[in-house]
Amino acid sequence: MHPLPIRTKRWFKRRWSPLTRRVLAINLLPLLLLIAALFYLDYYQDGLIDTELQALTTQGRVFAGALGEGAVVENSEGEQSLRERQAKALLRRLVSPTTLRVMLFRPDGQMMIDTELLDEAAMGRIIRMPLPKIKPPRPLKNQAKMPASNPAADPSSEPSADLATPPDSESAPAEASLLSDIQERLHRLFRGGQDFDSYIEHSQPRLEDFAEAAQSMQGEFGRAVRVRDNGELVLSVAVPVQRYHQVVGTLVLIAGGEQIDRALHDIRQDLLRLLGGSLAISVLLSFYLAGTLTQPIRRLALTAERVRHGQRQTMMGGLLKRGDEIGDLARVFEAMTSALWQRITAMERFAADVSHELKNPLNSIRSAFETLQKIQDPAKRRRLTDIIMEDVKRLDRLISDIADSSRLDAELQRRAFEPVEILPLLEQLSERHSASYPNGPFLVLKIEAEEPCIIEGIEGRLLQVLHNLLGNAMSFSPPEGTITITLIDLPDSNRLQLAISDEGPGIPPANLEDIFNRFYTERPASEKFGRHSGLGLSISRQIVEAFGGRIYAENRHATDDAAVIGSRFVIELEKI
């Protein structure tokens, strides 16, 4: 057994094959692009913002209508103005169920009311503002550990937040915390949307601080979206306060974008879970798919490497039973390997037969030449010279037939088959035979097949088969005998049968198959030795089988007894 090269072992044992990487990349790329697009939800965010602004505008119109009806007074000159006291009372009632911040501005731009600055007791609600998170100080390396204090011994000490927290709510679930952290990082990385203006908190807001309020002074509605430094959205609308189409003030309603951020956060988190599961499944399926492809290919490559080093075991195993393309490839590879070994075996046997057949005339020539040097008798020397010439001719015929047999195999593999009509070939063969042998043996054609009689093959090679079989029949037929060529349609099949019969002594039953072997000769006793190489019938079988047919020999028997009255060579070919 030949060991495999080191280079072969390396590529066979590597775990991360290029095919696996390609399959994994192709399956993961769409998911990764989808994850990136998940955090670029412009249209979804714009839809949420537009919905919130419409709701905020509706509330502003309600507030402005209430102020226009209940907080506007008219003086003796017909001028209308807002009464601050009534306006504050109305706004307290209107804003208390909401989380909005409402500012009322006079026509000159001065702020009249800011609901954030109203008396908390009068408003009846407490405003809670979140404090920034304070990280605990990191202990110094050399700091000595203080003994734990006893809360009971120190009345001034207060229970820490950790002790006051119930055990079940010490921290958020690990999964939600991890997803939130991943989401925030990806959101910052792939953050899309519009570039909103920054929201600036003024100590004494004026109407000109809100660009959208300029439209409200003309009796129109204005709205804007801004963003705080921490990324939180701030939505605002400006609504004119009117009485009989006279603008007496402007309402600016401000709402935070917590609901929008929470909605985006929730949908991102849900989709992130879904995509995480899809990503895991895609990775597993990618490895499974790559394994089903790479492992059989590696096994096929290893088998090819073993065949290259002279090992006949294919190691296909269960690949031959697979019903997919890999199974088809394995079966074709198995058939190819088997055919390759058969051809190698045939070539070795053919080389051995050729060597054996060539040695016989060479030995005869050498023996005759050695004897020729020792004999002085002219008659005997002439006889030895004739023997040498006959062996040279025999050697020439043998080499020519061997070369034709070698070229035949290559030609049958390379040359494309074409439709061949059999009847014109038989008529041509009959005319040539009648012209060459007018005194016999005679050739008779019997056509019992429906025209057209067409097969797929090579016309010249089929004619070569007919010449070989006809020449073989003439060798065994008596001088005035008859050779019959019969062409019939086989029943219940689309095949033609071509039979060449003679009136010779027949073939020994034990040799009916041996006569098609290379260099096998069974010639009449009257024929001179060495005139045939024994390759004619072997070449004929090779050609017929290449055409998809079969050829065999049988003896002809008399109808009244079992006596042999000749032999018959039968060819069966597929009809097209």
What would you say this structure looks like, in words?
The protein is of the alpha+beta class and 576 residues long. The chain folds into four domains: 81 residues, no CATH class; 169 residues, PAS domain (Beta-Lactamase, 2-Layer Sandwich); 78 residues, Orthogonal Bundle (Helix Hairpins); 161 residues, Heat Shock Protein 90 (2-Layer Sandwich). Helix content is 49%, strand content 16%. The chain has 14 helices and 15 strands. The strands form four sheets. The chain has a six-stranded mixed sheet. A five-stranded mixed sheet has the order 10-12-13-15-14. A hairpin with a 5-residue loop joins strand 1 and strand 2. The protein is rod-shaped and about 165 Å long. The chain starts with 5 loop residues before the first helix and ends with a strand.
Task: Describe the structure concisely.
49% of the residues lie in helices and 16% in strands.
Task: Give the class from helix and strand content and strand pairing.
Answer: alpha+beta
Assigned CATH superfamily of the largest domain? PAS domain
Q: What's the end-to-end separation, in Å?
A: 48 Å
Count every beta strand, where a strand is a DSSP E run of 2 or more residues: 15
The strand line-up of the biggest sheet is 4-3-8-7-6-5
Query: Fraction of residues in helices?
Result: 40-55%
Order of helices and strands: HHHEEHEEHHHEHEEEHHHEHEEHEEHEE
Number of helices: 14
Principal-axis shape equals rod-shaped
Q: Proportion of β residues?
A: 15-25%
CATH class of the largest domain: Alpha Beta
Q: Largest sheet, described in full?
A: 6 strands, mixed
The domain count comes to 4
CATH architecture of the largest domain: 2-Layer Sandwich
For the CA atoms, what is the radius of gyration?
53 Å
CATH topology-level name of the largest domain: Beta-Lactamase
Mean pLDDT: 78
